[in-house]
Amino acid sequence: MIRSFLTVSTGTLASRLLGFLRDSLVAALLGAGPITDAFLAAFQLVNVSRRLLAEGGLNAALVPAWLRVRDTGGAVAAAAFAGRVLGTITSALIVATLLLALLMPFVIMALAPGFSGRETLQLAVGDARLMLPYLAFAGPVTVMMALLNAQGRFALTAFSPLLFNIALISVMAVLLAWRQDAVHAAQILSATIGIAGLLQLSILVLRRGDMTATPLRISFDAEIRGFLGKAVPGMIASSTPQLLMVAGAIIASSSPSAVSWLYFANRLVELPLGIVGVAMGTVLIPEMTRALRSGDQAAVTHAESRGLELAVGLALPAMLGLIVLSEPVVRMLFEHGAFTSADTIATAHALMWLVLGLPANVLVKALSPAFFAREDTLTPLLATLKGVIFAIVLSVLLGHWFGASGVAASLAIGAWSTAFTLIRRGGETFGFSIDAAARRRLPGIIAAALAMGATLWLATRVTPAFTQDLHGLLQATVLLILIAAGIAIYGLFLRLFGITDWREAISAIRQNQVGDLRD
């Protein structure tokens, strides 16, 4: 399991790092204003749709269903089921894409009511329509990735999303050299997003190997209806962070540049969230489904315990690090070109509040597979909706008083509401099983993260005195040294508290069978 987790995490890390480069170029190309607000509002629509499908949502429903059909009916029945799912979802998304294109003005007004009566609305509608073809490609891509995950083949699905960011980065590099005006640059980027999904689909089709989904056909029989009845709630429940951001953008759209500040702050939160959350959603669900079907309670306990340790062990230090280093990190990544120092300060303030919800969002990713593996997608859905509604109500109040920072704080509170609901419901329904090793290690992990955060904070009290007047490259170097030192300090405290060491990590990886990764 650890080997598979590391494979997915490595692919996700590479994708997120390319995403930072992509967003840094967006900031330099478009800045933070009405044109960027329009582009990001449109991108939010496509991005949330992509996350609903690709990053754990459809995977959460398809993997248990496909494994059940294969176990009961054999490989031929599983291939036929996969063919019906692939054909049905692809056709449904093509129809949805056409309908969204027609109704896009109303969709954007619902997502960003503050754009009404402003030129920003028309810009967002135009950008969103150019991006929409990606949604049609995302359907077959997601089904193919889920089938590979169900077979324990994680490498190709982990690294194929890199093509999305590579395409955008390449186009933006040309636009920066070409010096197009912001409106035309945003339109060209939007069109690039619209066709980027074709690259990902092509690589999966060319490398699908023995992954069969035949015969390919559209069907709404009882089995497919039952699958969709579980898949749709699961897709929504798996996208808690993205739905919270949509809720925040709805409220923030009435304030100039607030959508941009929240977006760039959220991009920093998504790095650790993606590394841990996506990997757990991809790896934990197949692991727990197999354990539950075989009646192996020890394997269930092991999966739940390791998932919780990884969630806390990576999310907590990331949260503390982003709080302490919020302003210099935002400055290094985004303060270029049209993105000003005032935008940096506003984004950093939003980040400090938004990142408080990171542990909660990762906990949701760690807890949800326990429900998905039991084919219960309704409970995570209700928990997600409760958190989103709570966040919207708070955003109206705090956003009015504190602007983008108030909205960010509301989103963090909404994430914790979802996490606490899942903890309570899981305890009441089936009880979460934590082994003795996790009970011993979790307090040490928390203590090590707090010690790292305190040490990093003390270091930042010293460094501003000799970095504030340095060249940008030197400031970036000092910041990278601080980040590396924080990671090293955290590892040292983990070792001192007897949590783990590098030998144990390498041993855990080597003990996994090579057959777990066939791509």
Description:
With 519 residues, this protein is mainly alpha-helical. Helix content is 83%, strand content 0%. The chain has 22 helices and no strands. It has helices at residues 2-30, 34-53, 57-73, 75-111, 119-131, 133-150, 155-159, 162-178, 182-206, 222-237, 240-252, 258-294, 297-324, 326-334, 341-354, 358-372, 378-402, 404-429, 436-462, 464-467, 472-496, 502-511. α2 (34-53) runs parallel beside α6 (133-150), α2 runs parallel beside α12 and α4 (75-111) runs antiparallel to α5 (119-131). The chain is globular, with a radius of gyration of 22 Å. The two termini are 16 Å apart. Mean pLDDT is 80; it is low at 505-519.
Write the SSE topology.
Blueprint: H1 2-30, H2 34-53, H3 57-73, H4 75-111, H5 119-131, H6 133-150, H7 155-159, H8 162-178, H9 182-206, H10 222-237, H11 240-252, H12 258-294, H13 297-324, H14 326-334, H15 341-354, H16 358-372, H17 378-402, H18 404-429, H19 436-462, H20 464-467, H21 472-496, H22 502-511
Helix pairs in contact: 1-8, 1-12, 2-5, 2-6, 2-9, 2-11, 2-12, 3-4, 3-6, 3-10, 3-12, 4-5, 4-6, 5-9, 6-9, 8-9, 10-17, 11-12, 11-17, 11-18, 12-13, 12-15, 12-16, 13-16, 13-19, 14-15, 15-18, 16-18, 17-18, 19-21
